[in-house]
Amino acid sequence: MKSTAPEGQKLAEFVHELGALGLANNATNEIDVAVAVLNSVAGVQAEKSKSQAASPITPAFALLQDMRGFQRTKNPPDLGGILESLFRLGLQDDSRTTAARLWLSAANKRCEIDPLLSVIDKATKAALLGGGYPERIEDIDPELVQMAPVNQESLFEGTPFSWFAKAWRKLTSDEWVEALPARVWVDWATTVLRLALGQGFLWEAAWYEALARWVLSGKPGEWSDVRAKVPEILPWKSSRSSIAVRDVAPLLSWRVHRGYKIRKILEDWLASNSAARGDFGTALAAMSADEDINVLLTLALGSAEKSAANTWEAVKYALLTRDAGGPFADYYGLLRSSGRFLTVEPGTEWMAVVASLACEGPGRSSDVATLMLSLEELGLKPEAGDLIQLLEKAGLARGSADADRGVIIESAF
Question: Exposure check for the chain: N or C terminus, fewer CB within 10 A?
Answer without folding.
Answer: N
